[in-house]
Amino acid sequence: MQGFKKIFSRAQLLEFGMYHFMDQFFGRKLLYRLTSKRRLKYNARVLETARKSGEGKIIPIERRTDLSLEEFKNHYRRKGIPVVMVGAAKEWDCVKNWSLEYFKKLHGDDVIALTELKMNERGYETTTLGEVIDNISNKGGKYYRFYPLLTRHPEHIRDFDYKWLLERKNKRVWLETWQVFIGGKDSISTFHMENQCNLFVQAYGKKRWVIYPDYYSPALDPQPGKGIYRAPGVKPDKGLFNIFNPDYETYPAYKYLDRYEVVLEPGDVLFNPCFDWHTVKNETDSISVGYRWVSPSYGFKRNPLFMFLDLIARNPPIRRAFKLYTEDTNLILVAQSGNLDKYLKEKADKEKEQKAKSSQA
């Protein structure tokens, strides 16, 4: 596979590490005020370096049929290279049986926190899975991310070849979790990165992935990590960069960075290494599941700075983040807004309401 271009000097990478480290400890706003002239000059040099390298190219993610376990581990996982294992899950029950109607019929009464990433706040809605699916079916644009299906309904483990997945994760891990994503055509997840590796199973519909290597972080000027993920820099009046509708005047650096792209078909499994920047778009109504794990030793090999900062994060602390992440990742977003207790009460009230409706039916 064609590799991405490397453009930054060692001095530029080290200076980025210093700024990001201080952002984490002292706060990004304070650091920008104290070092604004030097920081702005650095950002301008990084942009000029990217511009001189020429326009970025799109690198198709390799689609491999019958990729052996040993080649996957020794080449793709070890080197942190994304790869699609074509049709690896085509005989799994999640691919054969899942649909919007399937989830509404089985689990439509599940009370959930529907969260949306916004510029300076975290918004959430206390609703049910059935209401979200009705919205998707009616082209309403909602996208339910991080559905903790196996936490709530562990019997669905039979919908996967769990042994196949276990063979491909790292040996020593701190966290293992499953998250289902249910969204309508054209819904997206904005750019972000996580400290988890991901075997991403496309069960229903089609989904486009765009991945930028973590090497390009200096050009993305990321915000401090939040225990499990971090977002790129954002212009407050513009929102995050959207590669599917790019605004290169506001975010010019993205134009000069190489990126990986692929469209997943039902039954495909994508390996997405930890700490790579990515965004996704549902090309059709879509259901997919991420099997994720955190391996600190592997994370330190991939990006020692980000892994260290994630381990010492305080909003929330890493252990609290992992607990909420396993229960429901949306709870982390709600907790960061200061509304976790409020949501838990709303959830209990909504569940009582659902039980009352069921008893009257």
Description of the structure:
- The chain has 361 residues and is α+β, with helices and mostly antiparallel strands.
- It has a single domain (55-360), classed as Jelly Rolls (Sandwich).
- It is built from 14 helices and 15 strands.
- The strands form three sheets. The protein has a seven-stranded mixed sheet, sandwiched between helices.
- It is globular and about 65 Å long.
Write the layout of secondary structure elements.
Blueprint lengths: L9 H17 L1 H7 L1 H17 L5 E3 L2 E2 L4 H11 L3 E3 L7 H5 L2 H8 L3 E7 L4 E7 H9 L5 E5 L1 H4 L9 H7 L6 E9 L4 E7 L2 E8 L2 E6 L4 H4 L8 E2 L28 E6 L4 E4 L4 E6 L3 E9 L1 H7 L1 H8 L6 H19 L3 H21 L1
Parallel strand pairs: 1-12, 2-3
Antiparallel strand pairs: 3-13, 4-5, 6-7, 7-15, 8-11, 8-14, 9-13, 9-15, 10-12, 10-14
Helix pairs in contact: 1-2, 6-7, 11-12
- CATH fold naming: Jelly Rolls
Give me the CATH superfamily.
Cupin
Main CATH class: Mainly Beta
- Computed CA radius of gyration, to the nearest angstrom: 20 Å
Strand order of the largest sheet: 2-3-13-9-15-7-6
Architecture per CATH nomenclature, i.e. the level-2 architecture: Sandwich
* Total count of strands: 15
Biggest sheet character: 7 strands, mixed
Mean pLDDT: 91
Domain count: 1
CA-to-CA gap between the ends? 57 Å
Task: Indicate the overall shape.
Answer: globular
Low-confidence stretches: 117-122
Order of helices and strands: HHHEEHEHHEEHEHHEEEEHEEEEEHHHH
* Percent range for β-strand residues: 15-25%
Contiguous helical run count: 14
Question: In which range does the helix fraction lie?
Answer: 25-40%
